[in-house]
Amino acid sequence: MKEMMKKYTGIALSTVLGILTLSSCDKDDDRVGANPPDEVKQVFEVQYPNMNPKWDFEWGNYEAEFFYTGTHAEWNMPLNRVEAEAFYTSGAQWIKTEFDVTSYYSVAADQVVIPAKVRETVAREAGGRHVDEVKIIDLPQRETDFYRVEIDNEPNDVYLNVKFDGSLFQ
To answer: Residue 97 in contact with residue 143, Cβ under 8 Å?
Structure first.
């Protein structure tokens, strides 16, 4: 009986240690509250002056989390205190910025931020399912900017990439 207890105790201990080891490897290079190099901060400040970001370091890149208020120059879109995340390499190269405009999607009258063609495409593809999240993905090449839409479809949500003209792409 004692041998069996030792065996099960050993198995249980090995399982717990294995789980702890694997969970500690989840995001080895994540650092919440990271302090990026001055060059990264300067590039951010030129793009988004006076936005007061919270910095993280994930997967080898710096992420600035902030609330954006203003008219986005590329799209001439007024945004009012939307959550945003800007990503930069360690060498201060801007990768992308994501603007969470979900609240604008739920307000049907606000056609300025989410164009009618985008809304039509999303409604058609959603087929009555709930739209969980809508983000504008701003990339270095303006012509590649798009909306990323998450549609509730348990157990696997559906993600759409919709160009500003309402066309879908992968």
So the answer is: no
